[in-house]
Write a structure and sequence with these properties.
six-stranded mixed beta sheet; alpha+beta; 22 strands; 3 domains; Elongation Factor Tu (Ef-tu), domain 3
């Protein structure tokens, strides 16, 4: 069964946790004890309805304040598909959490409170979805019951988002607009009787129809070697395999490959997954590959198709989301973690701060503060095998680590 990874985003009190709770409830994915706990807690709070946000807000502080702080991952299935939903925070101070939750998503749901329309956090979350190149985005216009299910209000919000999309550099995004009431269930799983003017799908029907392969942009094939496998058994004493995960495209037996950085060439002899052998492995597969030739391959090397070479770079231009309370400034030094490789990195220039409402950039700033996004230049202590993020997501992204605290302070996207 296909698994679809989805990120949610939206401003505070737009109803993200309530929407996910409603999805779980209407698809009968809540256990009896969880449902009883929600019913009991809702009564204690004096609600005459079920507070579905209790299904996802796991931290004590979240339940007490009625807000989402941490990224929660929720798993559920229907007869057609399995889903993993990242419920990300809406507060501006938790923007880094939203980036983390959306970084592995194949689709995204951006919630908008129909009463408030497009607000600052809507701009920010829409911008991040574009930055991360998330191809399929649902604009869930929630709380339609509080604006009398107004088609006019829906069309105003839709027009504002379409205008934002026209200003984005990412043009391959599919936008789907769904008016709903997460609390009452309108257009979540069951079509709403209150919005006869809406002729589109419910949220669940749309998500079930998405194919993870169709909404994943195929790019050049990359295979960073995690480890070399040499079994200590008599039957496999000559076996030499290279284990890792395939990113971007597919590999087949017989493909001619280059081993980087040595530029040695060979041909794929076999592809293994546990005790099975396959003629082809798709992007996202964790496999072991053997080669026809006994070439030198080590952890940190990369197998690529001969005609699909990455860039070997010791200097990088990148867009970065800053995640540390101590601001980023030029001349600072960090560790860069890129796939299975790492190196020392120095910020040689902070070029711009990017305004997340698509209104432009601030040139030559002195620092990049927590949750801000900017363009930087880095100099590395050794060359890395990289791609631009818009050409290969996995090989075009990295994290920066503070060498003194060992904290992850930024996530970068190579340009």
């Amino acid at each position: 069964m296909n698994v679809l990874k989805i990120a949610t985003a939206g401003s505070v009190d737009d109803g993200k946790s309530t929407l996910i709770g409603r999805l779980l409830y209407d698809t009968k994915s809540l256990t009896d004890d969880k449902l009883e706990a929600i019913e009991e807690k809702s009564k204690q709070r004096g609600f005459d309805y079920l507070d579905f946000s209790l299904a996802t807000d796991g931290l004590v502080a979240e339940r007490e304040q009625g807000i989402t702080i941490d990224v929660a991952h929720i798993y559920f299935s229907t007869r057609k598909k399995s889903f993993i939903i990242a419920d990300t925070p809406g507060h501006i101070e938790y923007t880094r959490n939203m980036v983390t939750g959306a970084s592995t998503a194949q689709a995204s749901i951006v919630l908008i409170d129909a009463r408030n329309g497009v607000v600052e956090q809507t701009y920010r979350h829409f911008f991040i979805n574009n930055l991360l190149r998330i191809k399929d985005v649902v604009i869930a216009i929630n709380k339609m019951d509080l604006v009398n299910f107004s088609e006019e209000k829906y069309n105003i919000i839709k027009g504002e988002i379409e205008y934002l999309a026209s200003k984005s550099e990412y043009k391959n995004q599919n936008l789907t607009f769904i008016p709903m009431s997460a609390l009452d269930g309108d257009n979540v799983v069951i079509p709403s009787e209150n919005m006869s003017w809406y002729k589109g799908e419910t949220l669940l029907h749309h998500l079930e129809r998405l194919d993870a392969e169709d909404i994943s942009e195929v790019s050049q094939t990359r295979f960073p070697v995690q480890t070399v496998i040499r079994p200590k058994t008599q039957d496999y004493h000559d076996f030499r395999g290279y284990a890792g995960k395939i990113y971007g495209g597919d590999f087949e037996v017989g493909d001619e490959v280059s081993v980087l950085p040595s530029q040695t060439k060979s041909t794929i002899k076999s592809i293994h997954f546990f005790n099975e052998e396959f003629a082809k492995a798709k992007s996202g597969s964790s496999v072991t590959i053997t080669l026809d030739d006994n070439v030198n391959v080590s952890r940190g090397d990369m197998l690529v198709k001969v005609a699909e070479q990455p860039t070997i770079a010791k200097q990088l231009n990148a867009t970065i989301c800053w995640m540390d309370s101590a601001p980023l400034q030029a001349s600072q030094k960090y560790y860069i973690k890129h796939g299975v490789n790492d190196a020392q990195a120095k910020i040689t220039k902070l070029n711009t701060i990017i305004k997340t409402d698509f209104s432009g950039k601030i040139e030559n700033p002195s620092a990049l503060e927590l949750n801000q996004i900017g363009d930087i230049q880095l100099k590395l202590s050794k060359p890395l095998l990289v791609d631009a993020y818009n050409q290969n997501k996995s090989n075009g992204s990295f994290i920066l680590i503070n060498p003194k605290t060992n904290n992850t302070v930024g996530v970068g996207f190579i340009r």
